[in-house]
Write a structure and sequence with these properties.
Layout: E1 2-7, E2 17-21, E3 30-39, H1 42-46, E4 59-60, E5 64-72, E6 88-92, E7 101-105, E8 109-111, H2 118-121, H3 125-137, E9 145-149, H4 154-165, E10 169-174, H5 179-184, E11 188-191, H6 196-204, E12 210-213, H7 218-227, E13 234-236, H8 240-246, E14 249-250, H9 256-274, E15 282-287, H10 291-300, E16 306-310
Parallel strand pairs: 9-10, 9-12, 10-11, 12-13, 13-14, 15-16
Antiparallel strand pairs: 1-2, 1-4, 3-5, 3-7, 3-16, 5-6, 6-8
Helix pairs in contact: 3-4, 3-9
Length: 311
């Protein structure tokens, strides 16, 4: 009998239950995956913290996995093509990834690049597709200088790598202890705090074309508005109220346009990872049974990389 984490009531991870379950046999367009790693993201807890439109309890937890196919529905292909039992895959935007086995829509699964470990693969796409959409929304282009708030976080690190591949210069906010991480991935670090706008001006030596906010603080928003006058080139993933009030972009995966974009960009990002052009820094792993503790570490901020659950 398999097990999975389930929210049986709205609230914090402390209220979740680790329950036995029997994954259904896959039908047409489905595969069953033995999970080797599940990605841990703030959204895993946020999305069941309170009632949400279109979501009903109980809610199986977890959006990203990597593992091995154990069963294939009739006539089924995955997102990257033909599939067979025993193939290693990663999958994104699944439901119930905090499990040791799960049956999922096949189009959400892709063959795992051999160079990625299962914990890395299970953390590639949520951060990666978010970063790609932030760059797309702001129309960041080769030769431009942009500002990135939260450059050493999971989304920030993916932005840095994707921007570097496009010839985009990124000035990224970080603490002094995380500045080397920003440099490692091609960014120019800048300390956040009082005087941030002027420090960015001094480093930029010219116009700041766009601002990407992955932290949601008032400082991040205020400095973005100060430096980038075209509000269509400012985007946040964490300051929805400010975006609505100030007239710049806020994106979240549940928006229809975000869903379409992130689905379309999956194969491209997996290809970058397969070539070694997009890496996933890891902070560590936790046993599946310790999901609550893993989420506490993520919620506390600055874990130093991604975290995966290992069944």
């Amino acid at each position: 009998m398999a097990v999975h984490w389930v929210a049986t009531q709205w609230g914090s991870p402390e209220q979740w239950d680790l329950l036995e379950h029997e994954p259904p046999l896959p039908g047409a367009g489905e595969v069953t995956v033995r999970v080797h790693a599940a990605g841990v993201n703030p959204a895993d807890a946020k999305h069941v913290a309170a009632p949400r439109a279109g979501m009903q309890l109980p809610v199986p937890i977890g959006y990203e996995i990597s593992g091995v196919v154990t069963a294939v529905g009739p006539g089924t292909k995955i997102g990257s093509g033909a599939v067979a039992v025993g193939d290693e895959v990663l999958a994104f935007r699944v439901r119930g990834g905090y499990a040791d086995e799960v049956t999922i829509p096949a189009e959400k699964a892709f063959h795992k690049p051999a160079r990625l470990t299962h914990p890395e693969a299970a953390n590639l796409l949520l951060a990666g597709t978010t970063a790609a959409q932030m760059l797309a929304v702001t129309q960041a282009a080769e030769g431009e200088t942009i500002l990135l708030h939260g450059a050493s976080g999971a989304v920030g690190v993916s932005v840095l790598q994707q921007a570097a591949l496009r010839g985009i210069r990124v000035i990224g906010t970080a603490s002094a202890t995380r500045a080397d991480e920003v440099r490692r991935f091609g960014g120019v670090p800048v300390l956040y705090g009082d005087g941030l706008a002027q420090r960015v001006r001094d480093i930029a030596g010219g116009p700041v074309a766009a601002a990407l906010d992955a932290v949601g603080t008032d400082e991040a928003v205020d400095v973005s508005l100060d430096l980038v006058h075209d509000r269509s080139r400012i985007v946040t993933i964490a300051a929805a109220a400010r975006a609505q009030a100030e007239g710049f972009s806020w994106i979240v995966g549940s928006q229809p346009e975000s869903t379409r974009f992130r689905d379309e960009v999956r194969a491209e990002l997996i290809g970058l990872a397969a070539r070694g052009d997009l890496v996933v820094p890891m902070a560590g792993t936790y046993p599946l049974a310790d999901a609550r503790e893993a989420l506490r570490v993520v919620a506390a901020g600055h874990p130093g990389g991604k975290i995966a659950l290992i069944p």
